[in-house]
Amino acid sequence: MTQFKILIVEDDPNLLETLKYNLRKESYDVVTAVDGTQALEIARGEKPDLIVLDVMLPKMSGLEVCRILRKDMTVPILMLTAKSEEIDRIVGLEIGADDYMAKPFSMRELLARVRAMLRRAMMAPVREANEAASVKTGNLEIDIAGHRAFLGGSALVLSPKEFDLLALLARNKGLVFSRDQLLEKVWGYDYGGDTRTVDVHIRWLRQKIETDPANPTRLITVRGTGYKLEG
Questions:
Q1: What is this structure's pTM?
Q2: pLDDT single digits (tens) 23-68
Q3: 107, 129, 171, 188: which could form a disulfide with 120 (CB 3.0–4.6 Å)?
Q4: Which run of H or E residues covers position 200?
Q5: Alpha carbon distances (Å) from 45 to 39, 49, 84, 151, 192
Q6: CA 63, CA 102: separation in Å to the nearest integer?
């Protein structure tokens, strides 16, 4: 059985020990960092399977750590934010974090999200092997195997989850997905997650693929149901 390695980046010693204890109890290999500079060094050296990353850190913020790591690593990142830091959560998702949790949170939920994120990461190679090499709808083209997307021939800059979300909707053009379905299929959650995560990613995708994001004609909201992608 594979033992996943998880990097925890947290400067609160009590929370750090709690996270470390509970993750090790679940048989994960845990490494830790207490500031942003150390987080980059350990992430590059240890090559963790998942990173739990606090936003507020000494030396370098978690947002900056995430931004730098995303340039050369696809490791799943779960960001921890204070309850009032809505803008940080949105920015974190935009620069490449896969999900966020607001403090205080239940350890049970954190463990469930960690399992879901790892399961999703493990499924990705199998999923890609069974998918078409690319999907095209109008002037939007998604290179599934290469994890790239183009609009009118120009490359789009997408976070990992933005790409996964766009690829799913493009492969099922015209089909409406509820927020819960998108959480399950894109984030791998099999429980009631925070659907605002979906809304944030939809909003950012519209900024990148719509001529007028405020009046979308491609990525459509179906009131009371969810979202779909039109041609």
A1: 0.64
A2: 999 999 999 999 999 999 999 999 999 999 999 999 999 999 998 9
A3: 188
A4: helix 196-209
A5: 10, 12, 33, 36, 35
A6: 15
